[in-house]
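Let's practice the habit of predicting before peeking. Look at the sequence and jot down your guess about where helices and strands might fall. Then scroll down.
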Amino acid sequence: VGYSFGPDITESFLKRNDLQLLVRSHEVKDEGYLVEHGGKTITVFSAPNYCDSMGNKGAFIHFDETCEPKFTQYEAVPHPNVRPMAYAAGMGGLFM
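Done guessing? Here is the structure:
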């Protein structure tokens, strides 16, 4: 479940909280990130090929000393030949 909002809501939120930029995450974006609302909203998503089915890139964002966002994008790599959740066995076998 997600919420959609437009640039008017972004502007109101930023003004009310004395901010210049809204950075949010955990919404799949084809290129791993998306800049919207006149550059005032950035959505970044770090999981490439989400759920092994979306075909999206992953990305992360870094802010340098000038506070300009720098994006790094990457693609998914093949999984090792290990059954799903194999490494979770240390949790009392909950996921076996």
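How did you do? Residues 34 and 56 are 12 Å apart (CA to CA).
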